[in-house]
Amino acid sequence: MDPETLIRLIPPTISLIVTSLFGLLVGVLVEKFKNRFRTVEYSIRSQKIIPPLSQNLGGQLSIKLNDRLTNTLKVTTVEIENKNSIDLENIVVRFSLSHNSWFQGNEAYLARNFNGLLWTPIYSDSFNAVLGEYNSCEIDQNGQKIISNDLQIRIDYVLSNRDYLIPVFNRKDKAIFNFLIEDPIDGTNGYIFPSIIHKSVNFIQKSDDEKRKQKDIWIGVAIGVVFVSILITMLSIKYPEQKCLIIWSSVIGFSYSIVGSLILYGFRKIRLFFK
Predict the structure, then answer these.
(1) From the centroid of its chain, how far is CA 36?
(2) Which residues are paired to 42 by β-bridges?
C-alpha cells in the first residue's frame, strides 16, 4: 500500500476510533445511570393520644382499647417520598417496633391520588394464619386461651411488624403510613423502624429543611467570600496603583449585608416599641 493511500486512510481511521471510544463512554455512563442507587427519604412524627398532664389538668384521663384501659397509645405517621426522577415499582416497606410495643391499627395511602396501600400477600397470609390459630385455641378454666410458645412467637411478630407493598411509586410522590401504636406498659417510648426491601434503593431519613437551608446559605457565603477574595487579590496584583480603591470597594461590598441587617433590626425594634 503506497504512502498516499495510507495518508488518506488516517482521518477516517481516527474518526472511527474517536467514535468508538465516544460510544463506549456513552454506554458506560448509561449503564452507570441505570444501576445507580435511587434515593427514598422518610420522616417520622409521633403524638401521644393522652399527653403528659398533671393530676389537676386532666391527669385522670383514660382510654379504652377493646374494653381494655390503656394510657400508652400514640399515633405515628411515617412519610416516604420518592425523590428520584423515575418511577419505582413493587416497593416493599417494612415497619418494625422496638421490644414490647405493638401495632393496634394502621392505614396507608399515596398522597398524590389517595390510593390505598395494602399489606404484602406474604405478610397478609401470615397474619391471617396466626389469627386463625389464635381463634381456634382452647380456653382454660380461667377463661384464658392456651397458647403454645411457637404460636406466641408468631403472634409477637405480626403484632410488632407490618409489611406494605407499593405497586407503583411515582416520582416525587409520597406514601403516608398512619399507625396506632401501644407503647410498653412500663411507660418507656417504643420506636418504629422503617426499611425498604428493593434493589439499588438508598433509604435515608429526611433532614430538617430549615437546618439544611441555613447550612446551604453559610456554604454559599463561604464560597462567595473565597471567590471574591481571589478576585480582589488578582486585581490588586494587576493594578497595584489602584490597590487601595479596590480594597475599600471590596470592604464596602462585603459590609452591605451587615448594614442592611442592622437597619432591619432597628426598624423591627422601633415598630415593636410603638405597637
Answers:
(1) 18
(2) 80, 205
Instruction: Give residue 58's pLDDT.
Output: 54
- Quote the crossing angle between the two packed helices 243-273 and 209-238, to the nearest 10°: 150
Q: What is the mean pLDDT of each run of 10 residues along the chain (275 residues)?
A: 53 57 50 63 90 62 80 93 89 94 95 94 95 90 87 94 95 95 88 89 80 68 72 76 73 66 76 65
Can you spell out the DSSP letters for 251-275?
A: HHHHHHHHHHHHHHHHHHHHHHHT-
CATH of domain 35-120+158-206: 2.60.40.290
Domain ranges of the chain: 35-120+158-206, 210-273
Query: What is the pTM (predicted TM-score) of this model?
Result: 0.67
Taking Cα atoms as reference points, which of 43, 40, 35 lies closest to residue 84? 40
Cell of 22: 465516544
Question: How many other CB atoms sit within 10 Å of the CB of residue 199?
Answer: 7
The residue among 90, 256, 274, 101 whose CA lies nearest residue 167 is 90
Nearest to 177 by CA among 72, 91, 101, 88: 91
